[in-house]
Specification:
Largest sheet: 7 strands, parallel
Number of helices: 17
Bound molecules: nicotinamide-adenine-dinucleotide, magnesium ion
Structural class: alpha/beta
CATH topology of one domain: Rossmann fold
Shape: globular
Radius of gyration: 20 Å
CATH class of one domain: Alpha Beta
Number of strands: 11
Strand content: 15-25%
CATH superfamily of one domain: NAD(P)-binding Rossmann-like Domain
Helix content: 40-55%
Strand order of the largest sheet: 4-3-2-1-5-6-7
Order of helices and strands: EHEHEHEHEHEHEHEHHHHEEEHHHHHH
Length: 392
């Protein structure tokens, strides 16, 4: 029996994780759940899974939850704030930690799990984008096992030889091919992109996800963040990570070897597959996802990405090439731009513009300490907010 903490349990990944866990009550025990504001969602999860601890990042929501739990005579302990998140990420009862908070807000709790030597199921790609070098180094020092949940990276992990950590060149890997659906606007002209609304951007053709990652998929920043994520997870350089548009989202990514072999992982686009894979690894368990119907899929298409219409991908390569604090600045500016777009205070094409202006305004520094990265994150957010204000 493995104890599991889910950071961000009320979100899209969190709910999918609980769906898989509920199928295997003999294997997994939910130790702690966390959310930001969603008291009712958390209450229902506490009723269904009886965790030892529930954390609401927001103080007032924590108080409200504690009251509701008392009314229902549930004895789940309630904690709040980043301190509470870090506590449940590192508590001894948790063998595994699912990192499914969205954005850089998930960095400190995920890092706490790494420092406690947990098996980390990493969905929160922003954590790695902000602090990749430091994060991987802490994992090595503390013997934490990082298993990727992002479907592309999980696919790459499945296609890699078991000893890939020796170095990709040593194990005969030439390239990582990250597939991208292209999002809802793959065929849209620049004029059409100008008028995109938040609702249109959040309607992804193949995947159901939280709003922030849905917008990232529409701008293709999601793929840019994933290129950076792949560089850290698989210890490789950006030149060895190629993005391939594949609108059906059936191949989740591929690994090319020196001999010309290309291995791919296929499946229905449902996050329960990578979640079940990472929970059970190296075993395999039922995920609740049906068989892939290749006759219904019928064809698999591939295209090169267009960085004219989707400059975010180019900006992400620019940031990882620059290294140091640049990816943290890229991520912070993007989080601000996406939030303002979702509120209706920035147009869709403004997102890459705000990111580019912010990225270019900051001198790159070596990403030596967490404090420096968090400070850059903070300063980049302030700068990006200013850029947004000046546009209106
Ligand atoms: P979501 O918005 O649906 O859920 C986010 C969760 O984090 C919620 O439980 C929310 O309460 C919590 N949260 C939000 N802000 C917080 C804060 N400041 N402090 C503490 N908790 C906070 O997001 P999602 O789609 O589940 O994505 C989660 C992460 O997984 C993201 O990093 C995303 O990029 C990654 N991911 C998601 C998918 C997907 O299919 N949804 C696929 C691959 C990767
Ligand atoms: Mg992905």
């Amino acid at each position: 029996m493995k104890g599991l903490t889910i950071l961000g349990s009320t979100g899209s990944i969190g709910v999918s994780t609980l769906d898989v866990v509920a199928r295997h009550p003999d294997r997994y025990r939910v130790v702690a759940l966390t959310a930001n504001h969603d008291v009712e969602g958390m209450l229902q999860q506490c009723q269904a899974f009886r965790p030892q601890v529930a954390v609401m990042a927001d103080e007032a929501s924590a108080e409200a939850l504690a009251g509701r739990l008392r009314d229902e005579s549930l004895n789940t302990e309630v904690l709040s704030g980043v301190v509470g998140l870090e506590r449940v990420a590192s508590m001894p009862e948790a063998d595994y930690v699912m990192a499914a908070i969205v954005g850089a807000a998930g960095l400190l709790p995920a890092l706490a799990a790494v420092r406690a030597g947990k098996r980390l199921l990493l969905a929160n790609k922003e954590a790695l984008v902000v602090s990749g070098h430091l994060f991987m180094e802490e994992a090595r020092q503390h013997g934490a096992e990082i298993l990727p949940i992002d479907s592309e990276h999980n696919a790459v992990f499945q296609c890699m030889p078991a000893d890939f950590e020796r170095g990709l060149a040593r194990v005969g890997v030439k390239k990582i091919l990250l597939t991208a659906s292209g999002g809802p606007f793959r065929r849209s002209s620049l004029d059409e992109l100008r008028a995109v609304t938040p609702e249109q951007a959040c309607a992804h053709p193949n995947w159901e996800m939280g709003r922030k990652i849905s917008v990232d998929s529409a701008t293709m920043m999601n793929k840019g963040l994933e290129v950076i994520e792949a560089c850290w997870l698989f210890r490789t350089s950006p030149e060895q990570v190629e993005v391939v548009l594949h609108p059906q989202s059936v191949i989740h990514s591929m690994v090319e070897y020196n001999d010309g072999s290309v291995l791919a992982q296929l499946g229905n686009p449902d996050m329960r597959i990578p979640i079940a894979h990472a929970l059970a690894w190296p075993e395999r368990i039922e995920s609740g996802v049906g068989s892939l119907d290749l006759f219904a899929v019928a064809r698999l298409d591939f295209e090169a990405p267009d960085t004219e219409r989707f400059p975010c991908l180019r900006l992400a390569y620019q940031a990882i090439d620059a290294g140091g604090t640049a990816p943290a600045v890229l991520n912070a500016a993007n989080e601000v731009a996406v939030a303002r777009f979702l509120e209706g205070n920035l147009d869709f094409l403004g997102i890459p513009q705000v990111v580019e202006q912010t990225l270019n305004a900051f001198a790159v520094e070596p990403a030596e300490t967490l404090e420096l990265l968090l400070e850059q994150d903070h300063r980049a957010r302030e700068y990006a907010e200013q850029v947004v204000r000046e546009r209106v």
